[in-house]
Amino acid sequence: MASLLRAFSSCQSEGRAAAVVFTVAGYPTQDATIEILLAMQQGGIDIVELGIPCTDPIGDGPIIQDAHTVSIQTGTNFQTVLDIVGRARERGLVVPVVIMGYCNQVLQYGFERAVEEAAQVGVDGFLLADLPVIESSHFRTLCKKAGLSYIPVISPTMKDKRIELLCRAADTYLYVLSRMGVSGSAGEGVSLDKSVLSQFLRRLRHFCGKKPFALGLGVSTREQFLSMQDLAPGVVVGTQIIKIINGSQAEGELARAIRNYCMYLTGRSDVVSPVQLPLHNPTINPSADIACLAGEITLPSYFGPYGGQYVPELLLDSLGDLERCFVSALEDPNFWREYQNHLTGMISGPLQIKNGHDTSGHQVANVWLQEETSHGLHAAKRYRIYSTLGQILLACRLGKKCILAETTSEGDAIATTTLCARLGLCCVLFMGARDLKRFPGLSTHIDKLGGKLVSVGSGGQVVRDAVNTALQSWIADLHECHYVPGVAIGPHPFPTIIRTFQARFGDETWEEAISQIGKNPDAVVVGVAAGDAAVALVPGFMDIRGIDIVLLDHSGRVTTMSPGVFHGSHTELQQDKNGQVTRESDPQSHGYHSYPALEPELSHWVSSGKARVVSCDNGLNPSPDGSGLAGGWLVHAARELANQMRRGENILVIV
């Protein structure tokens, strides 16, 4: 922490901005990273931000994403990041080092262990993009005790109350975004002209006082550095370093190229040791931080230990606006009248439950099936239409003009685009390229409806990559756009909003079950994968005594999951010991069935025993529309369960 304060003090005494430069640890190799750090120091850099590689870095553009991928392939993890810092210190690295990355890799290592060992090897602070102040009280306390800095991120879209909070939480400096968007995506985000940026920075200075800040995103040349130097005590450069690494072959050439670029950037031909100036030590009051934000969240943000808001700080004002809008809409009869009016024509007909008894005579309990077999517009799952419509109407109330959503099926894509067209909204859908191959002609159909379907070719080209791209697009334009998740994933309040709108499906299913069976079913069976109907259905049956809630798990995926942070929430997910989210190994897996995490509420049911998970694999593949497990798979598994029940009991299967 002290080294960071001295770095800014030294730069201020010399009348220049601090040069803060980012690179990904382990890229192109772990040994090369040490040479890069030393070359940066030789080139006059004041502070280094060293990135922890991550499988899903939603705040980074494609150039840095590729560097993350290569780094992971070299075996780099949080432990090796610390080793790199320690070895670089032994080689003479004296400039401050800030570890930058995402929460889950540090969480899996253990917050206490991570902070303690980081301090031992000479790390000076942490910047974790998806660990906002409201979720970071424990981590910040650990950092303060160890003498490490916690560096908040501030964006131009933030409200004054949040800016004030973050300025209080910062103990050395703040990372300030000069524009909206992800790193290395100049021209794709919303840029601010210099006068608007200057106005925002005056507002920032009102709250941060003499506390320094570093301005980042979009800087690569000496001219841009000098332009930013007029505005900020520090300037951040990141993507350009990765580009230089990409263009260099031999390690010796790489070190020279990095050193020469840093000297060009800073305009410094002679590098001197930092001046030891008196330090100003701001105070931190974590309890006051949380108290300040307590009024921002109206609804419970967790389901047991799962949920929360693990997202970049710049999203929290938008999430707060969404929550307040949702709470208001719940009590507004006009909202529900509009909701019902738009629902007309979107649903193919009344929900139906039919007898699915095994004609062989060997089955013990009775099996009842609830399934939807319609096509075209009505092919969208009923419960997804309920939540998508509600979310789009909330977006209208928020004054948004464009809907962003991932999609995995033809029916959902058509339904979402149709709803947007009816309400006069732009609609941009994101589908993994692997999923899109199953729907020839869908892009043309969406175009005719007035929407746009983006084929996502990054990563595994499946739904998690579509979610990443949708979130990045939302970050780039929070003012005009609104993200609509297809299932109950993401940061609070998305899971609560989606399960509330989908609860109608559970109520309808219960009423139809009573009508057809004549009483409550003894067991309810539904798939456990994200995108199956569990979150929509189970709340309608959860509190009825005596009903066995069974979640069917294809190939035992849930047993391989462990708690972690993914796409904005703490949930159960498939990950390795280093906190890297793993990919579905089954090439037949697509749609939401390839999603590597459970919905947060579902994680709570499983861990608390409110529902039981049954793993089985009868060789059937996920459903063709990508909406979940194959109907035949579910029915077959349910009939096996029925044979374990008593004669005359009833089991309801949601296909």
From TrEMBL:
It comes from Helicocarpus griseus UAMH5409. Its EC number is 4.2.1.20. InterPro entries: Aldolase_TIM, RibuloseP-bd_barrel, Trp_synth_beta/beta-like, Trp_synthase_alpha_AS, Trp_synthase_suA, TrpB-like_PALP, TrpB-like_PALP_sf. This is tryptophan synthase. GO terms for molecular function: tryptophan synthase activity. The lineage of its organism: Eukaryota, Fungi, Dikarya, Ascomycota, Pezizomycotina. Residues 366-550 form the Tryptophan synthase beta chain-like PALP domain. It comes from the Eukaryota. Residues 568-593 are annotated as: Disordered. Its cofactor is pyridoxal 5'-phosphate. It is an enzyme of class 4 (lyase). It catalyses: (1S,2R)-1-C-(indol-3-yl)glycerol 3-phosphate + L-serine = D-glyceraldehyde 3-phosphate + L-tryptophan + H2O. One of its GO terms (cellular component) is cytoplasm. Pathway: Amino-acid biosynthesis; L-tryptophan biosynthesis; L-tryptophan from chorismate: step 5/5. Keywords: Amino-acid biosynthesis, Aromatic amino acid biosynthesis, Lyase, Pyridoxal phosphate, Tryptophan biosynthesis. SUPFAM superfamilies: Ribulose-phoshate binding barrel, Tryptophan synthase beta subunit-like PLP-dependent enzymes.
